[in-house]
Write a structure and sequence with these properties.
CBS-domain; elongated; 25% strand; 3-stranded mixed beta sheet; 147 residues
Length: 147
């Protein structure tokens, strides 16, 4: 019987993601993205995950004259992508990467058994997994083993 190491989403994700409420003004999303040096935020409403807003969403909206002229009144819910593309903690990194490629997205929100957002897996996280540990890659001890 061979043992094969499977890297799980829970091993690579950024835990405790910064989130934003759907009713927040978009300038708050801009501030959070800049402050935390991240490229996307899970969006919540009434405690549940409803979408994702990214730097790309904001840049595209800013380039519109109509939206740009009304920027102070624009809410996150107006610009977010919905629904959020999610994966479970135990999903293999390979499956998550395939989903990201198929959906043409740069991040998936990681959810627990209750559907609560517990992390975010980004394309940068996937690239980091390819590097040797001494170059900032994944520690082999963080891998789970499956038979």
């Amino acid at each position: 019987m061979t043992t094969r190491t499977i890297l799980r989403v829970g091993n690579l994700m950024t835990v405790d993601p910064v989130v934003i409420d759907a009713e927040a003004p978009v300038h708050e999303a801009e501030l959070l993205l800049k402050s935390y040096r991240i490229s996307g935020l899970p969006v919540t409403a009434d405690g549940g995950l409803v979408g994702v807003i990214s730097q790309t969403d904001l840049l595209n909206a800013r380039s519109s004259e109509l939206i740009g002229a009304n920027w102070d009144r624009v809410k996150v819910r107006h610009l977010m992508s919905r629904p959020a593309v999610t994966v479970h903690l135990a999903t293999s990194v390979t499956r998550a990467a395939r989903l990201m490629l198929d959906e043409h997205i740069h991040r998936v929100v990681v959810v627990d058994a209750d559907g609560d957002a517990v992390g975010v897996l980004t394309s940068t996280d996937l690239l980091r997994a390819l590097l040797p540990e001494e170059e900032g890659g994944v520690n082999a001890a963080d891998l789970s083993t499956e038979r």
